[in-house]
Design brief:
Order of helices and strands: EHHEHHEEEHHHH
Mean pLDDT: 86
Largest sheet: 3 strands, antiparallel
Number of helices: 8
Distance between the termini: 25 Å
Structural class: mainly alpha
Helix content: 40-55%
CATH architecture of one domain: Orthogonal Bundle
Shape: globular
CATH class of one domain: Mainly Alpha
Low-confidence stretches: 1-13
């Protein structure tokens, strides 16, 4: 998984995702911290108070978790925004990856990775269900035409799957790089999903 949140993103070919080490994964391994990290990814800079209002938590709680994430450079304070009483936090430059073989080689690292991934997927799935149940039938025509919830199945080799992932990722990267900081009338946060994984064969109980 990769995310960027920056006003000056270098060319994609010059970037590498940060592979989170066990310490960063363990710092992230809390349901509220995953939600905070995800909100900063999707909506941009926030304060402890704005996060508390969105998450139904106290500002003291969100402030504590923000500091815990900042200790591992997962987020950072915006020096040019806010005051001593109201600190703004943002995602740093670059993407992150949870695919760390060293972390997965230890029980603690594997548990932290699984918890973080489970919470990210749960949060994103909750957002999708909330959209379907609460907003889908209220969209104006332009956004109805700009919304797609779709799934498809085919049969591929591992190499064909890798090639398809590259094509999908290139399209997503181009959209992110082109519109990451777009503002103006009619602009709103949009989440882009690309799930691609092999299914078990019939009769496979593993």
């Amino acid at each position: 998984m990769a995310d960027e949140n920056t006003e000056a993103v270098p060319p994609r070919e010059e970037r590498q995702d940060r592979v989170l080490d066990v310490g960063a994964l363990r710092a992230m391994a809390h349901p509220l911290r995953v939600k905070i990290f995800d909100i900063l990814s999707q909506y941009g800079p926030q304060t402890a108070s704005s996060l508390a209002a969105r998450l139904g938590e106290s500002s003291g709680s969100t402030s504590y978790h923000l500091r815990a994430l900042a200790k591992h450079d997962l987020i950072r304070e915006r020096e040019d925004q806010g005051s001593g009483r109201e600190r703004w936090w943002e995602r740093p430059v670059g993407g992150v990856s949870f695919s760390n073989p060293d972390a997965m080689a230890t029980p603690a690292g594997r548990a932290a990775t699984q918890l973080v991934m489970n919470e990210f997927l749960r949060h994103r799935n909750d957002q999708l269900l909330d959209f379907v149940n609460s907003e889908l039938d209220h969209l104006d025509e332009s956004w109805q035409e700009g919304t797609m919830i779709s799934t498809a199945s085919t049969r591929l080799t591992a190499e064909q799957t890798k090639e398809l992932i590259g094509k999908i990722q290139a399209l997503v990267d181009d959209a992110v790089d082109s519109y990451r900081n777009q503002t103006g009338e009619g602009v709103r946060p949009v989440t882009i999903r690309a799930d691609l994984f092999p299914l078990p064969e019939l009769g496979d109980k593993s």
